[in-house]
Amino acid sequence: MQETTSRIAVIGTGIMGAPMAGRLAEAGFVVSAWNRTSAKAEALSERGVAIADSASEAGAGADVVICMLSSGPVCEALLLGSGGLLSVMRAGSTVVVMSSIPVETALAIAQAASERGIACLDAPVSGGEKGAKEGTLAIMAGGDAAIVDRIRPIFACLGRVTHVGPSGSGALTKLANQLIVASTLCAVAEALTLAQRGGADPARVREALLGGFAESTVLRQHGLRMVEGNFEPGGPAKYQVKDTSTALGFARSRGLTLPVSEEVDRLFQAMVDNGDGDLDHSGIIRQLQRMNPS
């Protein structure tokens, strides 16, 4: 059990936020949580988490506020809007935005926090629901390295943190991560589709590839989802396309052309347009199957 008395507020208790809040409470931190859909937070009371009636109530007395929300606009609205969280947080506290957000949003939040004497990190994560439950998330922290060190015990409950640079760097690193993940998902889906159409057993093909140069977490975890047809969302496709589109927008702002990522983005957008946006992003194989009917 942690000896610290740090009070933590977790804002957003969906697929990722709920297990993260539970792990922190079970580690001995004093944790409160709020979610727009209150039913998604209620089960956390059994794990020692206090359920707040509002985001402001959760954040007002916290030493550290962790935001695990769906998008940049949602983070902006809750943190920067009229009566937003930053306006009720005390000077000297810390806000950690662990959502996937645009670099520009991360910088705006950091600036607003600084003006109120609040420390800020943009520290998105990778590892999905499994990593959130097991405390094995990869955490990419942008901001002051001293702040990362100060709250390292909190990060240690959630996974492995790496300080990647100044404010905005965490958000940028997550965009890079999402391009790799999305491209690999598409490659695995194409490979398994090819195997099936060629007469091989996709499950055995996946098994054969594990341990070789083609092995990856995506092949191991999401390749299995594709083989089994299990697309219960761990990372919904609608959020994947949000991130690839954001990454490409940032790339264009820097004069970059990323042709592979552009095609991957089109595939995920087509998946969402065909009604599969709430499925796990491994469901991209369904889009390939639509494009290649038997």
Describe the structure.
The structure is a single chain. With 294 residues, the chain is α/β, with parallel strands linked by helices. The protein folds into two domains: 7-166, Rossmann fold (3-Layer(aba) Sandwich); 173-291, N-(1-d-carboxylethyl)-l-norvaline Dehydrogenase, domain 2 (Orthogonal Bundle). The chain is 54% helix and 13% strand. It has 15 helices and nine strands. The chain has helices at residues 17-26, 39-42, 55-60, 72-80, 85-88, 103-115, 128-134, 145-150, 152-158, 169-197, 202-209, 217-228, 237-253, 259-276, 284-291, and strands at residues 7-11, 30-34, 50-51, 64-67, 94-97, 119-122, 125-126, 137-142, 159-165. Strands 3-2-1-4-5-6 form a six-stranded parallel beta sheet, sandwiched between helices. A three-stranded mixed beta sheet has the order 7-8-9. Strand 2, helix 2 (39-42) and strand 3 form a beta-alpha-beta unit. Helix 10 (169-197) crosses helix 11 (202-209). The longest helix is centred in the middle third of the chain and has 29 residues, at 169-197. The protein starts with 6 loop residues before the first strand and ends with a helix. 47% of the residues are buried. The model is unreliable at 1-5 (pLDDT under 50).
